[in-house]
Design goal:
The complex is a heterodimer of chains A (248) and B (202). By secondary structure, chain A is of the alpha/beta class. In chain A, 18% of the residues lie in helices and 32% in strands. Chain A has 2 domains: 92 residues, Beta Barrel (Elongation Factor Tu (Ef-tu), domain 3), CATH 2.40.30; 124 residues, Rossmann fold (3-Layer(aba) Sandwich), CATH 3.40.50.80. Chain A has 5 helices and 12 strands. Chain B has one domain: Sulfite Oxidase, Chain A, domain 2. Helix content of chain B is 9%, strand content 32%. Chain B has 4 helices and 11 strands. The chains are: A alpha/beta (248), B mainly beta (202).
Chain lengths: 248, 202
């Protein structure tokens, strides 16, 4: 059929777990060795398939946390009522094999080609994962595109990639807001991102920023609408939503 | 042969009756998750129209009151999202595409749905007729909320749910197939959940 002929089939392949690193009490980054990885673009995701002894299998999608050219890594948040994420964050060990296929998604991506305008990244919770790929890719490219990351997390211990974000380098400003609990002496923002904080931290619309928003649905809805209100053209706002607590 | 994930048992909470209704690789949810590529558009109803179009010309356009005045059906169907959730027995009030097409003369074989926000998706016309597809404006007895595609969305429940375009404003009736938004970004051109046509080449 039209438009499909040039694309290759995404086949399942066996990946070996090389590293596991706890990012927070409920979030883990899993580094994978994938022999036939075709390469990915920052912002893409992949599918994971787990198979039980009796052949039952379950699949889920996860954002890729590593930059293009780096070994494939995913960062997974454990959802207590989940089917796959508790296994990935608690059971999986270095040396284990899982099946993956990808990369998937060609819209919520940053290639570095659009360097003339600043980049706004807005993350709710584990919505920060694809932004790690983007920020690392920017660094690896030696790009000087200006980046602001507005990152809403429940508390400081819930911040994923904290050390890495603190050290994101020149041209990358990370603005945290902690919604539920702030440590003593916290001088950052507190509470959910409201229109005032969005207006204060987002690039002025006349700079024509390219924006990526990723997080739970209510967060993404609120942020995307808020940015449209600030004069951002809808076509410059790319969103990715996950069910959060709703989805297993 | 898939490697066994040591210690993985899975949940398998679906009943046997559900299992027959749930396509491979899907799980049943009672929530109604939202997926969209951009901000939710909010078109005022007085500006809203639905058009059937061919070769750049509107063949027929309905205003919001005109759409509501058309014979509608109460439809209860299972829906299947490519991100793996399925939702059973969703209930909609909707106008059959057959009813809209009956009003125009056209030579189309394919349809490209177009929407507020610029979203498009392609469906063979044969999949939109014979009682298989609708324009839905009410969900669960209530006006369709904007985040779920209101005021109106396409409803094509036998294909993955991205084909059920949110914020739909019309159909372009085409002689040749033309991939839509997700279809250009690596998703399957047709999207049959029972054949797990998630991505191009599946």
């Amino acid at each position: 059929m039209a438009g499909t002929a040039v694309r290759g089939r995404l086949t399942w392949q066996v990946a070996t777990v090389e590293t596991v690193r706890d990012e927070t009490a409920s979030v883990r980054t899993i580094g994978l060795a994938v022999p036939d990885w075709a390469g990915h673009t920052a912002g893409q995701h992949l599918d994971v398939r787990l198979t039980a002894e009796d052949g039952y299998s379950a699949e889920r999608s996860y954002s890729i946390a590593s930059a293009p050219g780096e070994p494939v890594a995913i960062t997974v948040e454990r959802l207590d009522d989940g089917e796959v994420s508790p296994y990935l964050t608690e059971e999986l060990r270095s040396g284990d094999e899982i099946e993956i296929r990808g990369p998937i998604g060609g819209y919520f991506i940053w290639t570095g080609d659009d360097a003339a305008t600043p980049l706004l990244l807005v993350a709710g919770g584990s919505g920060v994962v694809p932004f790690r790929s983007i920020i690392r890719h920017r660094h690896n490219l030696g790009s000087d595109v200006s980046v602001r990351l507005l990152y809403s997390a429940r508390s400081l211990p819930d911040v994923i990639y904290r050390a890495e974000l603190d050290d994101a380098g020149d041209g990358v400003a990370v603005i945290f807001t902690l919604t539920r609990q702030q440590p003593p002496g916290w001088t950052g923002h507190s509470g959910r991102v409201d229109q005032r904080l969005l207006a204060e931290t987002a690039w002025p619309a006349h700079q024509d920023p390219l924006t990526f928003v990723c997080g739970p649905t209510p967060f993404v809805e609120a942020m995307a609408s808020g940015l449209v209100e600030l004069g951002y053209p809808a076509g410059r706002i790319k969103t990715e939503r996950y069910g959060g607590a709703e989805a297993p | 042969m898939s490697p066994i994930s040591r210690g993985f048992h899975g949940r398998r909470h679906e009943t046997a009756a559900d299992t027959a209704r749930v396509p491979p690789g899907q799980y049943v949810t009672s929530d109604f998750p939202v997926l969209s590529a951009g901000p939710t558009p909010h078109t005022p109803l007085q500006d809203w129209t639905f058009s059937l179009r061919q070769a750049g010309t509107d063949l027929r356009t309905w205003t919001w009151p005109e759409l509501l005045a058309l014979p509608a059906e109460d439809v209860t169907v299972d829906i299947h999202c490519v991100t793996r959730w399925s939702k059973l027995d969703t209930s909609w009030r909707a106008v059959p595409i057959d009813t809209l097409l009956a009003d125009v003369d056209h030579q189309g074989t394919y349809a490209l749905a177009f929407c507020d926000g610029g979203y498009t998706t392609n469906v063979p016309l044969a999949d939109l007729t014979a009682g298989q597809a609708w324009v839905a404006y009410s969900y669960d007895g209530q006006p369709l909320p904007p985040e779920h595609g209101g005021p109106a969305r396409l409803l094509v429940p036998h294909l993955y749910f991205w084909k059920s375009a949110k914020w739909v404003r019309g159909l372009d009736l085409l002689a040749a197939d033309e991939p839509g938004f997700w279809e250009r970004y690596g998703y399957h051109n047709y999207g049959d959940p029972w054949r797990e046509q998630r991505y191009a080449g599946d």
